[in-house]
From TrEMBL:
Keywords: Iron, Membrane, Metal-binding, Transmembrane, Transmembrane helix. It comes from the Eukaryota. Signal peptide: none annotated. InterPro entries: Cyt_P450 (IPR001128), Cyt_P450_E_grp-I (IPR002401), Cyt_P450_sf (IPR036396). It comes from Digitaria exilis. The lineage of its organism: Eukaryota, Viridiplantae, Streptophyta, Embryophyta, Tracheophyta. Belongs to the cytochrome P450 family. The chain crosses the membrane at residues 6-26. This is Cytochrome P450. One of its GO terms (molecular function) is oxidoreductase activity, acting on paired donors, with incorporation or reduction of molecular oxygen.
Length: 316
């Protein structure tokens, strides 16, 4: 009997302490928000510790868009765990944030996935704002997306379209069905792979590029509780197995990037007969040796940009 009373007393004390902590948390948070000199965007009610994580779903962009519409707020302030975030859902506000005030709002969080899968956050997406980010972005824009470069690969596009038409013609007289969606998907991938890497990659079973990129994109796009609690990241990512999976996928990705870059350095890439055009990997390796760069590119920087190109190249 005495043991039961002692147990009930302990539970009551623990509950009292918990409620007191919750009260103090809310009281101090409300006072801080009222006394803050900054005009903060409206924020929906949140929970202690997790903040607004409970408002997210499997498709967070849909959930956040609906929340913004329901609150009639183009700007929303959220707390995802211990991380503060602002949601922009209006085009003109997004334009102001991404163009007019780009210098003030261009910082990026150092996510665990970016550190492992982007070679130390050295691609354009995850690199912190600064000299390196400017150099990497300028290289991508001027050497891959410029009108001159797009025009230079007109022959590649025409050749791949001819290959697709020949493939369809060969199946025209047979009774076997043809998946046009898959054909057009392979066409896009073949064009982009030739522009980026100077060659085609195998489709279907045994497609090493697509399997690695799919896994990496899933890790980049997936939800990680460790990113919401950076101070607990080593413990949380280890317990959930996220760090182990990142290291496994990172090893596969590094091996693939090593092979692609090495075959270009050694001049042993599988050239398509008659194709003498310079691939984007060739361009990166040439630019790396340039003395005009504001900041030199390391070989890992080159591999990070190749990785980013993989994610934008492969479509499934």
């Amino acid at each position: 009997m005495e043991m039961e009373i002692s147990l009930a007393s302990s539970v009551s004390s623990l509950l009292l302490v918990t409620l007191s902590m919750v009260y103090v948390y809310y009281y101090t948070t409300r006072r801080r928000s009222k006394s803050s000199p900054h005009r903060l965007p409206p924020s929906p009610p949140g929970w202690p510790v997790i903040g607004h994580l409970h408002l997210l779903s499997d498709m967070p962009h849909h959930a956040l868009a609906e929340l913004s519409r329901r609150m009639r707020a183009p700007l929303l302030g959220l707390r995802l765990g211990s991380v503060r975030a602002v949601v922009i859902s209006k085009p003109d506000v997004a334009r102001a944030a991404l163009t007019t005030h780009d210098a003030a709002l261009s910082s990026r969080p150092g996510l665990l996935s970016g550190r492992v899968l982007s070679f130390g956050c050295s691609d354009v997406t995850y690199a912190p704002s600064g000299p390196y980010h400017r150099v990497a972005r300028r290289v991508l824009v001027s050497e891959l997306l410029s009108p001159r470069r797009v025009e230079a690969y007109a022959g590649v596009r025409a050749e791949e379209v001819r290959r697709l038409l020949a493939h369809l013609s060969s199946h025209a007289s047979s009774s076997s069905p043809v998946d046009l969606g898959e054909c057009f998907l392979n066409l896009a991938n073949d064009v982009l792979c030739r522009v980026a890497f100077g060659r085609r990659f195998q489709h279907g079973k045994g497609d090493r590029l697509s399997s690695v990129v799919e896994d990496v994109n899933e890790l980049f796009g997936g939800f990680s509780i460790a990113d919401c609690f950076p101070e607990l990241e080593p413990f949380v990512s280890s317990v959930t197995g996220f760090r182990r999976r990142l290291k496994s996928s990172g090893a596969d990705l590094r091996k693939l990037c090593d092979d692609i870059v090495d075959e270009h350095i050694r001049g042993k890439r599988q050239r398509i007969p008659g194709d003498e055009s310079e691939s984007f990997v060739d361009v990166l390796l040439r630019v790396q040796k340039s003395a005009e760069l504001e900041l030199p590119l390391t070989i890992d920087n080159v591999k990070a940009l190749v990785r980013e190109l993989m994610s934008t190249t492969f479509h499934s």
